[in-house]
Amino acid sequence: MTRYTKGLTNFLDVLDAQRSLYTAEDSLVQNKAAVDIDLITLYKALGGGWERNDPVSGRESAPAANQLNKT
After folding, report:
1. pTM score, two decimals?
2. Who has greater pLDDT, 27 or 62?
3. What was the pLDDT predicted at 47?
4. Residue 12 has pLDDT above 80, yes or no
């Protein structure tokens, strides 16, 4: 854009550069989403480790807490 405002290039070059930038940003977001999906798939394949915790008190949810009291 700076080169365009100084008269060193035409606006078509600016549009091409912006298109390249947007394509690269889109690719980055898609790759980050693919990594997240792959991590979830990996966690599921390894058996999870998903535990429900109460984010406020830090205690486990009621069903898991009832199991602890029975043992």
Report:
1. 0.56
2. 27
3. 84
4. yes
Distance from the Cα of residue 7 to its chain's centroid: 40
Place of tokens 């069903």: 63
Q: How many CA atoms lie within 13 A of 45 on its CB side?
A: 6
HEC profile of the chain: CHHHHCCCCCHHHHHHHHHHHHHHHHHHHHHHHHHHHHHHHHHHHCCCCCCCECCCCCCECHHHHHHHHHC
Q: 53 - beta bridge partners?
A: 60
Distances 71 to 6, 52, 67 between C-alpha atoms, Å: 77, 19, 7
